[in-house]
Write a structure and sequence with these properties.
The complex is a heterodimer of chains A (264) and B (427). Chain A is built from 11 helices and 10 strands. With 264 residues, chain A is an alpha+beta fold. Chain B has 427 residues and is an alpha/beta fold. Chain B is 40% helix and 13% strand. Chain B has helices spanning 5-10, 16-28, 84-94, 106-117, 130-145, 187-196, 222-235, 255-259, 288-293, 304-319, 322-343, 368-379, 398-416, 418-426; strands at residues 51-55, 58-61, 66-69, 123-127, 149-153, 179-182, 201-206, 238-242, 265-268, 279-283, 348-351, 358-361, 382-383. The chains are: A alpha+beta (264), B alpha/beta (427). At the A-B interface, helix 9, strand 10 and helix 10 of A face helix 2 of B.
Chain lengths: 264, 427
């Protein structure tokens, strides 16, 4: 994989997976919710060549989600242009010089400090220390945000990562659904029915080909940290797979490859 | 009186000992149970995890539940569990010793037996597992041809070695750099792949019929087999048959006789020892020198007991024409399952040769129906695997098959009930 392709993949991971994970963070994490309470603004990143990502905060929206990747009428959005995928990666990974150029929505600029605080909070939730995980509520938010990020990272991984491309070329067409405390958190899904995989949150658009359900917190935490003996967990019933197991197996392989891109 | 859906859902766990043992196993054995017998390959919680005993065509788990065994140890049990003649031959040999500094005379007897049974065989070697032989056979092809590439069917299973394992872990790109895939039953794909790697192809390896997990089995087209043979002849490549799974179940002389084609080397395992650990490769005389140059051995590969068992098993397979029995009861099973599927409004797809049957449901791409069906049948004492082809044995009677069909019919009727589907899904 050449460096240009690698930078493009990492940029997509930040724009399509990390950035949208601010949405469940605000929905479920009290600290994040308090930070953004009463705010109405959005930020859109454009690194050219179809590398785009947007998050819009509207905590008073009827949907109540607090943040969305869709545009909302009347909510101002800061448009930031980045000259390349590499600049995008540097900006999100805070590694080296990045020069995002505001090209619209100037009135949102003062909110960027708040945006930074939110992303710091996301980082704390995604990469917690052991002490933080002793709090059950926090642990569950950590797991769901991690799973949200991983599932939303899959389209980019399947289209650009070498192993992901191999999986995509042979994967059965269908939907994979991921569940964790379904009474609290929405389903996450990956739709492989068209040429381009799509990730989503909520009810899958059709019956899933395979469903993976994390049945307890410990199993889910270990899975998110790539420390789970999956076969043993499935045998015990701590993980439940229904349907076309090979698809879940292949996606697990691809998910395990996400972290090195985001934490080199 | 049979249970309705609600009663099934409220049943106490049937496998407390299995689950307790698996809890211990999960702490100290990676995966708890690994490989093809992992609970993950069936429906975890709906099938037993550990076996206690078996006799003929049935087995009992450690919780005391008994099953008509339609997997037969995933293939090795071709005559029946604890077959008296085979076990007597093995026991007699055991009393004289098993593992020596030398092979026993049985090694020569067994090689002669293999050569007499298999028409293309001029020599034979022995090992323990299928992977031992498929990997070694590809090495012999490379030694003979001086070429590198091995062509195989995409999605085919040839064992657990790095060049062919369906697993993901521990592999590097170089493991499969010389392995190229073509499409099952697609003659043009064969021709194209030979063209792409012309002058560097050592062998083609195929199973005699395609039996992917999580998929229907597929019998070979005559044209497809003919094309492989022709292309191998043109290229000077060897045609290897991986008859590990099907060997001696379709024809006493090997599956190529059943389907009518002529390979250069054949790898056998599973059925040849009726459960005793032994595998074999046989080949044409022109490859014997190359075979002699490719090192093969293992700590237990010369053991006498499995060879005694294999000699007796092969004798019975030929004497009793076991493949004909398997074909007959397999067809009875196919007919019965199709009939029940139609009658209960859950039409099925029967695939593979009748002797190595498989069934799935129409419009069930995720195998959800199949998983519920097999769980229901297991609950009534019939082991239908939800995702892997099934195996029959000589000990299975027509009455056993009819019992399987009856249980399957009841499961299909329940499957049709929305209430059951909701109940299972709700769990």
């Amino acid at each position: 994989m050449d460096n240009s392709s690698r930078q493009r993949l990492i940029a997509r991971l930040y724009l399509e997976a990390v950035l949208p994970t601010l949405s469940p963070l605000i929905q479920f994490d009290r600290t994040a919710k308090d930070l953004i309470d009463g705010q109405h603004f959005g930020v859109r990143f454009d690194a050219g060549d179809r590398l785009e990502g947007r998050i819009v905060f509207d905590t008073n929206s009827p949907a109540g989600a607090g943040a969305t990747t869709e545009a909302i009428d009347g909510v101002p959005v800061l448009n930031l242009w980045l000259p390349s995928a590499s600049q995008c990666v540097r900006l999100f990974s805070k590694s080296g010089l990045a020069l995002p150029i505001p090209v619209g929505g100037w009135q949102v600029l003062p909110k960027m400090t708040l945006f930074q605080q939110l992303t710091d909070r996301l980082e704390a939730v995604l990469q917690p220390d052991a002490e933080a995980l002793s709090d059950e509520t926090f642990l569950r938010h950590h797991v769901f945000c991690s799973l949200h990020l991983a599932v939303h990272a899959l389209p980019a991984m399947l289209e650009l990562d070498p192993e992901g491309k191999s999986v995509l070329s042979s994967a059965k067409k269908g939907i994979a659904e991921f569940k964790y405390h379904p009474d609290t958190f929405p389903s996450l899904w990956l739709d492989l029915r068209s040429d381009h995989p799509i990730a989503g949150t909520g009810k899958p658009p059709a019956s899933p080909l395979v469903t993976l359900n994390f049945c307890n917190d410990e199993t889910a935490v270990q899975a998110m940290a790539n420390r789970l003996d999956g076969l043993a967990a499935l045998g015990r019933g701590d993980l439940v797979l229904e349907g076309f197991v090979p698809l879940a197996d292949s996606l697990d392989l691809v998910m395990a490859r996400i972290q090195p891109y985001l934490k080199p | 009186m049979k249970m309705d859906a609600t009663e099934i859902a409220l049943q106490p766990p049937k496998f407390p000992k299995s689950m307790e043992l698996f809890q211990r196993a999960g702490e100290i054995i990676p995966g708890g149970i690994y490989g093809h017998t992992t609970p993950v390959t069936t429906v975890p919680g709906a099938f037993p995890y550990y076996a206690a005993s078996a006799k003929g065509g049935r087995y009992t788990d450690i919780d005391g539940n008994s099953y008509i065994d339609l997997m037969c140890g995933y293939g090795p049990i071709v005559l029946g569990h604890c077959h008296p003649e085979v076990d007597a031959a093995a026991r007699e040999r055991q009393e004289q010793g098993d593992c020596f500094n030398h092979p026993s005379p049985l090694m020569v007897d067994l090689a002669e037996r293999m050569i007499s049974l298999v028409d293309i065989a001029d020599w034979a070697v022995f090992a323990k597992n299928g992977s031992d032989m498929t990997t070694w056979a590809t090495q012999v092809a490379r030694e003979h041809t001086g070429k590198r590439k091995i062509l195989k069917v995409a999605g085919a299973y040839h064992g657990t070695d790095a060049w062919c394992t369906p697993g993901h872990g521990g592999l590097i790109d170089e493991d499969r750099a010389q392995i190229k895939n073509f499409t099952w039953n697609d003659s043009q794909s064969v021709v194209d792949t030979f063209k792409d790697f012309k002058d560097d192809i050592a062998a083609v390896i195929i199973t005699p019929f395609h039996h992917p997990a999580f998929g229907d089995s597929s019998l070979p087209d005559t044209e497809f087999l003919k094309t492989i043979r022709q292309q191998c002849n043109i290229e000077g490549a060897l045609f290897i048959v991986d008859d590990i799974r099907a060997g001696f179940r379709l024809h006493p002389g090997g599956s190529h006789r059943y389907f009518g084609f002529e390979p250069d080397m054949i790898c056998f395992c599973k059925a040849m020892g009726n459960g005793y650990p032994i595998s074999s490769t046989v080949g044409r005389s022109e490859y014997k020198v190359a075979a002699s140059k490719v090192f093969l051995t293992g700590s237990y590969w010369n053991n006498a007991v499995p060879m005694a068992a294999a000699l007796k098993t092969l004798e019975i397979v030929e004497r009793d024409n076991v493949p004909a029995h398997l074909e007959k009861i397999g067809q009875r099973l196919f007919d019965g399952l199709s009939r029940e599927g139609e009658a209960k409004g859950t039409p099925v797809v029967c695939s593979g040769p009748p002797a190595i049957p498989f069934m799935s449901f129409e419009n069930d791409p995720g195998f959800h129906k199949m998983q519920k069906f097999s769980a229901l049948c297991a609950d009534e004492g019939v082991f239908f695997h939800p995702h892997h082809n099934w195996f029959l044995c000589q000990s299975h009677t027509e009455a056993d098959i009819d019992e399987c069909i009856e249980v399957a019919g009841r499961a299909m009727a329940l499957l049709k009930s929305e209430r059951l589907i909701e109940t299972i899904a709700g769990n």
